[in-house]
Amino acid sequence: HTREKTLDQPTDSSDLIRQAALDCLRRVALSKKVRLIGIRVGGLEKSPFR
């Protein structure tokens, strides 16, 4: 079963990305074995501030 989360705003914060991943993981019944866990980010843009 796939879980996904889209952030409301673009971010370069690894903490926000980590929190989104943990939110998805919390929606999985961990009483069963987990075969695969992956994190994907998309819609990347160069920051105008760098």
Q: Describe it for me?
A:
- With about 50 residues, the protein is mainly α.
- Helices cover about 25% and strands about 0% of the residues.
- The protein contains 1 helix and no strands.
- The radius of gyration is 13 Å and the shape is elongated.
- The mean pLDDT is about 85.
Structural descriptors:
50 residues, mainly alpha, 1 helix, elongated
Q: How are the SSEs placed, and which strands pair?
A:
Layout: H1 14-26
Give a quick precis of the structure.
The protein is mainly α and 50 residues long. Helix content is 26%, strand content 0%. The protein is built from 1 helix and no strands.
Oligomerization category of the chains in this entry: single chain
- Overall structural class, as computed from helix and strand content, comes to mainly alpha
Percent in helix:
25-40%
What share of residues are in beta strands? under 5%
* Distance between the amino and carboxyl termini: 38 Å
Topology order in helix (H) and strand (E) letters:
H
Largest sheet: none
Overall number of strands = 0
Low-confidence stretches: none
Silhouette = elongated
* Number of DSSP helical runs: 1
What's the alpha carbon Rg, rounded to whole Å? 13 Å
Mean pLDDT: 84
